[in-house]
Specification:
By secondary structure, the chain is α/β, with parallel strands linked by helices. Helices cover about 40% and strands about 20% of the residues. The strands form 6 sheets. A 7-stranded mixed β-sheet has the order 16-17-18-15-14-19-20, sandwiched between helices. Strands 11-10-9-12-13-21 form a 6-stranded mixed β-sheet, with helices on both faces.
Amino acid sequence: MTEHTTTVAGVAVDTRHWIGGERVASPATFIDVSPIDGSVLGEISRGTATEAAAAVAAAKAAFPGWAATPRAERARLLHAVADGVEKRIEELAIVETHDNGALLRSHRRGVMPRVAHNFRFFADWLLKLEHADFETRGHTNHVSWDPAGPSVLITPWNAPLMLATWKIAPALAAGNTVVLKPAEWTPLTASLLADIAAEAGLPAGVLNVVQGLGSEIGDALTSHPDVRRISFTGSVPTAKRISQSAAANLTPLSLELGGKSPLLVFADADLDLAVDLAVEQYDNAGQVCLAATRLLVEETVAEEFTRRFVEKAGKLVQGDPRDEATDIGPNIHPRQLEKIDGFVRRALAAGARAVIGGHRGEGQCYAPTLLTDVAQDSEIVQEEVFGPVLTLQTFADEDEAVRLADDTRFGLAATLATGDPARAERVTARLVAGTVWVNCFFVRDLQAPFGGSRHSGVGREGGTWSFDFYCDVKNTVTAPKGWQDHG
């Protein structure tokens, strides 16, 4: 480790900001700790309003040139970034596993390839982005997407690089410049991405990365008058603060927030499939905003479902995420582990029963937990735990299933297991959710809209919806032919 570089399992990572095509250090630092063993991964430059202002200024200065760059050239550069990601998948996977505790095998085989795909998808979508012209009383309407300007992207720690590039790729493709603020618990792969982007030839100031602690730097970014778009993924309380901060400048927001999603299992479902879907909710130690943490099971099959669930969940291996045999790694931070344990302890004290789990595991792990005998209005049913904790409730009929499913303040996603296509259509139409999966889970095509309802978010991103957000959509109306003769 040098003054401004840390080494993670043999991979060198610069711990400074990336602003205007240069590395910039801050006088103060913060410590980044691995959830695997509590080891210090590095001392990270701790940005403040000073670095925030510098990053926005760099993005503003670079914006005219980037916005004027032809679509084909922007797309070429995004593909070059994807090439760089693919060359360094192993390094990115290793660093991210040490930084956030998610499975190394998942990072290698799924997450980091998806990072590259994010850039490729939006590069290609940019080249085919168009609306057909249409006429109004002989006048031609032509819709176009004008780059909006510098965009602030604030991203979470549960899938740091993948979730960041879900935002970075469309923002850059749209012709915007970017200031990325990664989560303070997982800043390292964002720094590596800055190196990759520079090596790919992305002009200075087009992508900037500033690190810091919460509102200490976040408020300065989200309240800056030169910022034209803000996209945030994280908690509802933080979103409210960002909304207040952005309001002074009427800066458009895209907010992807928490969830308390249901998995509805009907008696006509393939129970083995339903159980597989339910156990899958423990993925990433339950640290998935989309996770269907509320299992709603038709009462006639609840006993058999529970038996099969316990059997399958009992085979999960919890431990070191670097081990190929591990299914569930540690939770991100001691503070998060304490939060999870607090939820469960309060639920048990209120009368809930732990069918499995209900306690801490080794190190920073929390045992996969299933709680029954929970009231619909209880904290454990209504609030997002963000850990490997599921609840199970039963229902008598379709109406009760929908009522229970929709009875929270959230509306991010829902999953439905049924063998009846007509029922799937009826129930899906009644569920309040941005995404509904029928007999599957976590299948996301980037051309589809993504976002939440109610307290789960504002707006949609994905495909053309991303360009609608990151651009100022313009309609040009031209008079009928012959208008020149009337000058």
